[in-house]
Design brief:
By secondary structure, this protein is mainly alpha-helical. It has 36 helices and 9 strands. A 9-stranded parallel sheet has the order 3-2-1-9-8-7-6-5-4.
Length: 923
């Protein structure tokens, strides 16, 4: 980097450094005032020493030596201090990103990739035919699905204080010393930092699922309710202006979903009551917001019939408004809006058995559907425009219309999910009770499919009203019957999908269908009619083997007439979910990513041959080891023909908070999802052309090598599980009160039974980050050998192929957060010296090999040469990570040495919280 560029970069980051220094100074003063000078001085000495380590002025062991033997009571304020230093640094970085974006726009530079403005420019340059665009965007859908997977470690209170500090810091930047309000703003920031310091970082009790439901809905209040409808309107208008002759995006493209309260795979706390609670709380939020907007519209649309002409439709609405005709007698819009509010109140009371906020206690007729509400709102819109008042129609009324169109009565689609093993147990019991078959579990796959297909054509239920069932079967049917109630009350969009975890066969799919039939959701049809279900059956392929066989499983299911009829009744739309987490834990980073790509290629071919329209649901986590990374890049890295205007993806843990806690960030992230979807659908982004098959074969080879290297360590090395348990805080992750879900699917010590979140989170805490890279270096090195032509081939593919570029870029991001000098301290926790030296030696060698091969293939000198902002971020937070890791190791050693005091346990959990905050995507 030239000298002038260095100066420019330093000047550009000066406000960030000033903000970090300002906030850190206030935190330090707060600590000194409330914890005393001795604690403050120790924190300062540790911080200064950590900076010296970063500058390589002292040995790496300097901080560890300084902290060695620190009493637990003294360690706790140290941990809290460095955790809050990191949290405030994150806040300053977020403000800096917004500042840089604003400067980019102000300078008149071209729009950045992942923005809709950049996407529109690309579409304009491509000169696409309207008919082709319309066909590709048929039934377009982009659906971020919020899950309760527990990687978010911060409490809601902490988030609220962060938001206040962020707003105040932005205000402070707009003021100068001496300006009115400058000193007051600083005082308010100090007040919030004090609140932060006095607030406990971790929960005393594990979150209940009811808490998780409330937390998920909170993001609608923060951003999603306002941002999603606005983006939908913007995208529809932009596309229709480009292709006015075709009716694009008949439905809003962005429609959110949730798993919270419907995902019972491994979560025993999801019950029928929980399903009702999740759906009703979401609906209550939607109704409350609509009714509140109607109140405000009634206040503002005060046009007099003496001054404006009103349409007959609005006149008719006005006549059914207030009971007293004298109220707003010559203000028809107010009366019409009151009539809509009365009917919507009646709708909410019927659905919820109570009135939400801003509801009216009337005997008005409820609306049958959200479209009926829209029809009335559209009538008011049309009347305003006809009288020349479009400026008024485009304000609050437009926002309400877009919201009702997007969210309906349900707000968000609640997916159901359960493991295929549970389905098999319940179906076996139901068939035996009914007399249809006494030992379903003993049947071959072909026999199972025949029996299930027959039952799916039969209108007779398997159970009578007096059936005596096991606790498991009764609970499963109770959950599905609750889902049926939700659909009947709020509409089919309220429960759109039933996901089958660990789906390996056609019978797994038909078992779920049979349970939907027994609950009254799936209608088997009449002898002359086809079966149909408002809930789509979604197989989830998770392991590498299941991903490889997924296309064959789907093709075989479509050969079963009753299942194909169900798909036909759904408009030939079939959704398939792909699991990123378990495939990675199963086979390692590169093998899993390639297995997903290959599965997508095979599924696209099945869709082409069978005539179905395929939609993929991507089960991505926050970390690279669980499918994380930039969503826009991930979408562009999909194979050609996969997206076709439609995708769903999970949003999990701390990633939800990072993306959707603030309106600007929410808008940018949702925009990037749509931008990636439009580009992947309408443009050729794969870039391989005739070179596709040779490139695929090369990746087949690399993936095989990578998986073998990963399996040699994780599955084949004796003692690996014991090494993992001793060298990471995986056992303690289960004690961190961050979610209702247990840490393991089963009470075993097997890697296969451990959930992916604690697997990834434990390696992240120990700074190994193993799931995000291990095996890739060996694969690349073995394939290249000493052949420069092979290396050149990989470099060429890296430059041309979004898939390989994204895989290696994500790998570099996660490796940049690893630190094997710190990891060595964790390895020292392993009792068996031979085991420790063997396994950590393998990890260290592969780590070095992977970095070496990454640089060779990409041509970069550093891991983050293509991501300077992340490089700067990691550089800034290093001094805060160092003491947190060192203290965690020391506390783990004390706990495992027999000191199981409450303070030691709390200290470990606090370090885990601080490190998760610092790393920003921990699980």
């Amino acid at each position: 980097m030239g000298q002038s560029r260095v100066v420019q970069e330093q000047e550009a980051t000066r406000p960030l450094r000033e903000d970090i220094r300002f906030l850190g100074g206030i935190l330090g003063e707060t600590i000194r005032d409330h914890e005393g000078p001795e604690v403050f001085d120790l924190i300062e000495r540790v911080r200064i020493e950590a900076f010296r380590v970063r500058r390589e002025e002292v040995e790496r062991s300097a901080v560890a030596d300084m902290l060695d033997g620190t009493p637990t009571g003294v360690a706790l304020p140290l941990i809290r201090a460095f955790s809050y230093f990191v949290l405030l640094a994150n806040l300053a970085e977020d403000i800096q990103r917004d500042r840089r974006r604003a400067a980019h726009v102000a300078a008149g530079e071209p729009p950045q990739d992942s923005s809709l403005a950049a996407t529109y420019a690309k579409l304009d340059a491509a000169d696409l035919e309207g008919a082709s665009v319309a066909e590709q965007l048929t039934d377009a859908l982009v659906s971020p699905v919020i899950t309760a997977h527990p990687t978010e470690t911060r409490r809601r209170t902490v988030f609220d204080v962060q938001a206040k500090i962020t707003a105040l810091m932005r205000l402070r930047r707009r003021l100068e010393p001496g300006d009115p309000g400058y000193d007051d703003t600083e005082l308010r920031i100090r007040r919030e930092v004090l609140t932060l310091w006095r607030t406990a970082l971790i929960r005393l009790a594990r979150l209940r699922i009811q808490d998780e439901i409330s937390v998920g809905l909170r993001y609608y209040d923060l951003t999603l309710y306002d941002v999603i409808p606005a983006i939908n309107a913007e995208v529809r208008a932009a596309l229709r202006s480009r292709w006015p002759d075709v009716d694009l995006l008949e439905r809003p493209i962005l429609r959110p979903g949730s798993w919270i309260g419907g995902d019972r795979d491994g979560n025993p706390y999801v019950t029928a009551d929980v399903v009702h609670t999740a759906a009703e709380q979401a609906a209550a939020y939607a109704f409350g917001r609509y009714l509140g907007e109607l109140v405000e519209l009634e206040k503002s649309l005060s046009q007099s019939a003496r001054l404006v002409r009103v349409s007959p439709a609005v006149t008719a609405l006005a006549e059914s408004g207030y009971d007293d005709p004298a109220v707003f007698a010559d203000e028809p819009y107010r009366r019409a809006l009151h009539a809509i509010r009365a009917r919507l109140s009646a709708t909410a009371r019927r659905a919820l058995d109570r009135l939400p906020d801003n509801g009216l206690a009337t005997d008005a007729e409820p609306y049958p559907t959200p479209q009926a509400v829209l029809d009335d709102l559209d009538a008011i819109d049309a009347s305003l425009r006809a009288s020349g008042d479009a400026l008024l129609a485009d304000d609050r009324l437009a926002a309400l219309r877009h919201a009702v169109e997007t969210f309906g009565f349900h707000l968000q689609g609640l997916d159901m999910r359960q493991n295929s093993e549970v389905h098999e147990q319940v179906v076996t019991e139901l068939l035996a009770w009914s007399g249809a078959h006494q030992d379903y579990a003993s049947l071959s796959e072909a026999e199972r499919v025949d029996l299930l297909a027959t039952e799916l054509r039969t209108r007779r239920p398997l159970l009578g009203p007096n059936a005596r069932l096991s606790e498991l079967a009764a609970k499963e049917l109770g959950v599905l019957r609750a889902a049926k109630d939700v659909i009947d009350t709020f509409g089919a969009a309220a429960v759109p999908n039933y996901i089958i975890s660990m789906c390996t066969s056609v019978s797994d799919m038909l078992e779920a269908a049979l349970l939907l039939k027994e609950a009254g959701i799936l209608d088997p049809g009449t002898p002359d009619g086809s079966p149909h279900s408002p809930v789509g059956i979604v197989p989830l392929f998770e392991t590498i083997e299941d991903l490889g066989a997924g296309a064959a499983t789907l093709a075989a299911a479509l050969e079963v007439p009753v299942y194909r009829d169900l798909v036909a009744a759904a408009g030939m739309r079939q959704e398939v979910m792909l699991g990123y987490s378990d495939s990675n834990k199963d086979g390692g980073y590169l093998a899993a990513n390639w297995a997903l790509y290959r599965a997508e290629l095979d599924l696209v071919e099945v869709a082409r041959k069978s005539g179905i329209r395929l939609r993929l649901f991507h089960g991505r986590g926050g970390t690279v080891g669980r499918g994380g990374g930039r969503s826009y890049d991930a979408i562009l890295a999909q194979p050609a023909g996969v997206v076709r205007g439609s995708l769903r993806l999970t949003e999990q843990g701390e990633v939800i908070a990072a993306k959707y806690s603030e309106s600007g960030a929410a808008h940018r992230n949702l925009e990037s999802l749509i931008a990636g979807t439009l580009e992947s659908t309408l443009l050729d982004v794969e870039g391989l052309g005739d070179d596709a098959e040779p490139a695929y074969e090369l990746l087949d080879d690399l993936a095989t090598r990578a998986r073998a290297a990963y399996a040699h360590l994780v599955h084949d090395t004796p003692g690996f599980v014991e090494y993992f348990r001793q060298s990471t805080p995986v056992a303690e992750v289960g004690d961190l009160n961050i979610g209702s879900r247990p840490a393991s699917r089963k009470p075993t010590n097997s890697v296969s039974d451990l959930r992916a979140i604690p697997w990834v989170m434990a390696w992240s805490q120990a700074r190994v980050m193993l799931p995000g890279w291990y095996g890739t270096g060996t694969a690349l090195e073995d394939w290249v050998g000493d052949d420069p032509a092979r290396l050149a081939r990989l470099t060429d593919l890296y430059q041309r192929w979004p898939f390989l570029r994204t895989v290696l870029s994500n790998l570099a991001q996660v490796m940049a957060k690893s630190d094997l000098d710190i990891a060595a301290r964790y390895a020292d926790l392993v009792d068996d010296e031979h085991l420790r030296d063997t396994i950590f030696g393998m990890i260290r060698e592969e780590h070095a090999r992977t970095i070496r091969m990454y640089k060779a293939v990409t041509g970069h000198d550093e891991l983050l040469s293509d991501n300077p902002s992340l490089a700067e971020s990691i550089h800034n937070r290093f001094p805060y990570l160092e003491p947190l890791n060192q203290l965690q190791v020391d506390l783990l050693r004390r706990l495992r040495g027999g000191d199981d005091s409450e303070l030691v346990k709390r200290g470990i959990l606090l370090t885990m919280n601080g490190l998760a905050t610092a790393l920003r995507n921990s699980g």
